[in-house]
Design a protein that fits this description.
Length: 120
C-alpha cells in the first residue's frame, strides 16, 4: 500500500462513527450530547500525585485516574454533594478544588487513602 493510500484509508476510518484506533475505546453518545474533556492534576501529599481526565457528555460522565502506576476508569454515581465516581475498588469524590480517594475494601467507614488538592 502506498503512503497516499494508507493516509486515505486512515482518514476514511477516522471519519466512521464509532471507529477506534488501537488503545482507544469509543462510546456512542446520545443524540445531541456534546462531549467536554477536562484535565486536572491533584497534589495528594504523601500518597503522591493523581492525574485526572473528566469526560462529560450528559448524561454520560466518566473520569480516568492515574496514580502510583495504576490507570482507572470511573463512572459518576449519585452523591449528596460534589461529584462522586466509582470504579474497581475505588471511590473518587471531588468537591470544589479538593478530592478524596477511598479504597472500599477497607470498609464503609474507612478514612480516604488520599486527600487531595487540585494543582491545575
Amino acid at each position: 500500500m502506498t503512503t497516499r493510500n494508507a493516509f486515505l484509508a486512515a482518514l476514511f476510518l477516522a471519519a466512521l462513527p464509532g471507529a477506534a484506533r488501537a488503545g482507544e475505546i469509543v462510546i456512542p453518545l446520545p443524540a445531541g450530547a456534546t462531549p467536554e474533556t477536562i484535565t486536572a492534576h491533584y497534589d495528594c501529599g504523601a500518597f503522591g500525585p493523581v492525574a485526572a481526565r473528566y469526560f462529560n457528555a450528559p448524561p454520560v460522565a466518566l473520569a480516568s485516574l492515574s496514580f502510583k502506576g495504576e490507570f482507572l476508569v470511573v463512572s459518576n454515581v449519585i452523591a449528596a454533594s460534589g461529584a462522586r465516581y466509582a470504579g474497581g475498588k475505588y471511590i473518587w469524590w471531588t468537591k470544589g478544588s479538593g478530592a478524596d480517594l477511598y479504597d472500599v475494601t477497607l470498609g464503609e467507614g474507612a478514612a480516604p487513602v488520599a486527600s487531595c488538592t487540585s494543582s491545575s
